[in-house]
Design a protein that fits this description.
Keywords: DNA-binding. InterPro entries: NA-bd_OB-fold, Primosome_PriB/ssb. This is Single-stranded DNA-binding protein 2. Pfam families: SSB. There is one protein chain. The protein has four helices and eight strands, in the order E-E-E-E-H-E-E-E-H-E-H-H. The protein has 180 residues and is an alpha+beta fold. It has a single domain, classed as Beta Barrel (OB fold (Dihydrolipoamide Acetyltransferase, E2P)). The chain has a five-stranded mixed barrel with strand order 1-3-4-6-5. Strand 5 and strand 6 form a beta hairpin. It is extended, with a radius of gyration of 23 Å. The relative contact order is 0.15.
């Protein structure tokens, strides 16, 4: 029987939960992802912009193991836009309880979850400025709007971008003929 491989694009609903499990202290990070489809409502707001609504909401739990678990723990945060690829599996467990008459009962519960094989930060609205591996520091993602605002305001002087790091369109045209 083959596994169902899927990719889900969404945002993290909560902070990644990092655990060490089993006698060998295997690394596990649990993620909860919210994903939805957006569609226009046909209505405009007071500024004339189209109003959109989220439909077909999906909330799914994902598990990351080993080095993927550690990398997710240090790189991701609540609200982070992610693309997660992995296998859909059904997790089953038993719950003990009592029925209306007070008689003990065991109920079998299950849920579909994603065992992640790859987790990617979605760069459509954010930029990653530095590699955490190289700098050994935790990163904070910024939206494109935040980065543009920093260029116009006094906070731009506090950034780690130097004049030598700036690439202009003219630089790209000159280097276009050079092999990579």
């Amino acid at each position: 029987m083959s596994a169902t491989i899927v990719t889900i694009h969404g945002n993290l609903v909560s902070q990644p939960e990092y655990l060490r499990v089993g006698p060998q202290d295997r690394q596990l990070t649990k993620l909860r992802i919210a994903s939805s489809r957006r569609r226009p409502t046909g209505v405009q707001d007071e500024h004339g912009s189209e109003i959109w609504e989220d439909v077909d909401n999906l909330y799914i739990d994902a598990e990351c193991w080993g080095s993927l678990a550690n990398n997710c723990r240090v790189s991701l945060f609540k609200g982070a836009p992610v693309s997660v690829t992995g296998k859909l599996v059904t997790k089953t467990w038993s719950e003990e309880g009592v029925d209306e008459t007070g008689k003990p009962v065991t109920q079998t519960r299950s849920k579909i979850m994603l065992k992640a094989t790859q987790v990617s930060f979605d760069l459509s609205n954010y930029q990653v400025l530095h590699s955490a591996r190289a700098l050994r520091e935790e990163l904070q993602a910024q939206s494109a709007d935040d980065l543009v605002a920093r260029q116009d305001g006094p906070a731009f002087a506090e950034t780690r971008i130097s004049a030598e790091d700036v690439v202009t369109f003219d630089d790209v045209k000159e280097d276009a003929a050079a092999p990579f």
